[in-house]
Specification:
6% helix, 425 residues, elongated, 14-stranded antiparallel barrel, mainly beta
């Protein structure tokens, strides 16, 4: 047990230093808050299409529904850590390019307070920004014009969740999440065929942090001693995040090819402008039906009112978004001495997201097909989880960009009995 504690402390320090790294490459992260991280909250759930609202597993920290913490064992401490990676191919009707990244993505703890009150702490991404796009604009009888747009950053969330066992079958929960982070977006217009025409560059840097609250409920219907139907619901009302932003616009020469960029004059500058980011309300419904330690199937539906999103009082012309996911897992009938293949969990899931983006009249939607495995360690509840998802975002119609992506996640779930009372001294 001491070795596990030292490992947990080491991994915690490592993740806390690395969690900020979110090197994505998606032009669609330019809009709104960027790409949202709502569909895959941990490796195990990723393998089932991201279902979470009706999932209640005593071996898993599930921030997709805070009510799920109430099923933690009253003597067990849970530590979950995950690493994620991505391979993306950006494709237009004329060309394509690929990018990749790997980062440590989440760290979560689950532990009991009393027999009826369980708690959780953790950190995971909320949204991600990352893109670098050059738009070539031919102009008749004049030099070509290039518009280069770049962005990076995103929001993280540190949450403290509490769940309460109201009756044997009813659970209520709440997550208090501190959302924090920063994002930079820049746009540069220049004339590569002329040394005598000034280009224009604008930089918008936004940072902020504040609390939001997510609420959850779950109810179980038991069928005999082994089968169970769980219904779940989540809700988060409208929240305003305090934020600050700097805006700078200047003229320049050079900045392309081997020509050094040289600033010429400041056009506009706005330092430390205070405002708010309006995060709209959302709700979701989900269910799972399972035979304990054998199989589980479930589905989620989630909706969020992104038409009400504003940043510093300005609307971003977003659409309301919804997501549907279906998935499940299976483990062969086994004993503690069975082969690894019989003790493993095998997962499968699909999801479809109607995103909050619509460009040139084309909805920028996405889908994903996922697979997952759990490798349990003998004589222990500790396990290694693997999740893989293939999906597509966007379209090549109307000169837009289609993103084909492969996400993968590797998770470690450590379980220790830290709360046993000793019978003998």
């Amino acid at each position: 047990m001491k070795k596990s504690k030292y490992l947990i402390l080491l991994l915690t320090l490592f993740v806390s230093l690395s969690l900020q790294a979110q090197e994505i490459n998606s032009p669609y992260s330019r809009f709104g808050l960027g790409l949202l991280h709502g569909e895959n909250v941990n490796t195990s759930l990723m393998g089932m299409g991201g279902i979470a609202i009706g999932v209640s597993d005593p071996t898993m920290v599930n921030p997709g529904n805070a009510a799920s913490y109430a099923v933690f064992d009253s003597t067990t401490f849970i530590f979950d850590i995950g690493m994620s990676g991505n391979l993306t191919t950006l494709k237009t009707s004329l060309q394509s390019e690929s990018s990749s990244y790997v980062t440590l993505s989440y760290i979560m703890f689950g532990f009991p307070i009393t027999k009826w009150w369980k708690s959780s702490l953790g950190m995971l991404p909320y949204s991600k920004i990352g893109y670098d796009v050059k738009i070539f604009i031919p102009v008749d009888k004049f030099s070509n014009v290039i518009n280069e747009i770049e962005g990076d950053g995103g929001l993280n969330q540190f949450f403290w969740g509490n769940a309460f066992k109201i009756t044997e079958n009813l659970r209520l929960g709440v997550d208090a999440a501190f959302i924090f982070g920063q994002g930079s977006r820049s746009s540069k217009v220049y004339f590569p065929d002329s040394l005598y025409i000034f280009g224009t560059k604008t930089i918008n840097h936004t940072r902020g942090g504040d609390f939001i609250f997510d609420y959850g409920i779950q109810y179980d219907f038991n069928f005999g001693n082994t089968r169970k139907l769980t219904l779940g619901a989540i809700y988060s009302n409208n929240w305003k995040l305090n934020a600050k932003r700097d805006y700078l616009a200047n003229s320049f020469t050079g900045g392309y090819g081997d020509v050094v960029e040289s600033l010429q004059d400041t056009i506009a500058y706005t330092p430390e402008e205070k405002g708010t980011l309006n995060i709209p309300q959302r709700f979701g419904l989900g269910f799972t039906y399972q035979e304990k330690e054998r199989w589980l199937i479930g589905a989620d539906f989630e909706w969020q009112n992104w038409e009400e999103y504003t940043a510093f009082g300005i609307s971003d012309s977003l659409d309301n978004a919804w997501r549907i996911a279906v998935g499940g897992q299976y483990s062969p009938k086994h004993t503690s001495i069975s082969s690894l293949a019989k003790r493993m969990y095998y997962r499968l899931g699909i999801r479809y997201t109607n995103s909050y983006l619509s460009i040139f009249g084309k909805p920028i939607n996405e889908y994903g097909i996922s697979f997952g495995l759990t490798f349990p360690l003998k004589k222990s509840k500790t396990a290694i989880d693997l999740g893989i998802e293939y999906g597509r975002r966007g379209t090549t119609d109307n000169s837009l960009i289609q993103e084909n992506f492969l996400n993968f996640s590797l998770g470690f779930s450590i379980h220790e009995h830290w709360f046993h009372k000793r019978k003998y001294q």
